Amino acid sequence: MHSLPPVLSIAGSDNSAGAGIQADLKTMSALGVYGLTAVTCVVAEVPGHVSAIRGMEPELVAEQVRLCFEAFPVRAVKTGMLYSADILRAVVQSLRAAAAKFGPVPLVVDPVMVATSGARLLEPEALEVYQSELLAMASLITPNLDEAAVLVGENIGSRDAMCEAGRLLARRYETAILMKGGHLKEDSAADLLVLADGREYWFEAPFVRGVSTHGTGCTYSAAIASELGLGRSLEEAVARSKKFVSRAIAGHLRWQADSRGTDALHHFAGITPAS
After folding, report:
1. Which residue has the higher pLDDT, 257 or 72?
2. 216 is catalytic
3. What is the number of structural domains in the chain?
4. Would you say the pTM of this structure is higher than 0.85?
5. What is the CATH number of the domain that holds 45?
6. Which residues contact 1 (CB under 8 A, 6 or more apart)?
7. Per the residue annotation, which of 27, 79, 142, 216 is the catalytic one?
8. Is 261 a catalytic residue?
9. Alpha-helix residue ranges (DSSP H) falling in 2-49
């Protein structure tokens, strides 16, 4: 009997399905792994606007994680929006318990702090827990430039600054860092992977202008976790995931309603449906 590698997303729910666990599940399905979820919060949002956020009870988040590991041979984990310090602590404790019982698996941490619209997605007191506990557990941390600026304490406005920040974070957390440079808005969307041993790799794709969507960070980290779950090396996982998310942006979907346009990533762009 054929089985797909199970990959777990611990993240928030996005009703518009362009980000969060909905984007993660689309990504995982497109890449050939079996997506599992532990929902941390429910977000009422559409691209460009966050209306409301409600966190789940930390005990419920922990129970979702526990059951996934008990029932499935989880091959990789990604975290997205964790929202509060209590939820963060519950996730950290659950992952430590799972690693002790079932062995470690790759952990991709997307440090979701601010939405594309500018809305804050992480309670202020949760940042300390992020830095002191979760980031130290990660196999890979995937900050965009705004998130990296929070972590290093200064703005990042160039490729040289990306290099300095990536190296600093890799040393601080003793793990790999993927600095996502799309916010530079150059002709090329360039990302820098800094490994814990100091090796560095750049990944580039044409910057697609005129697209107003969200969920690229969620999709990118979910793709990397999926590729790691399939047994690929970190460098290969990032390279393949960069191509995947770039294709999803370039092939974006668009709807027009009530005098406003809504864009979304096309997670299945370029993928031939099974017959």
Report:
1. 72
2. yes
3. 1
4. yes
5. 3.40.1190.20
6. none
7. 216
8. no
9. 20-31
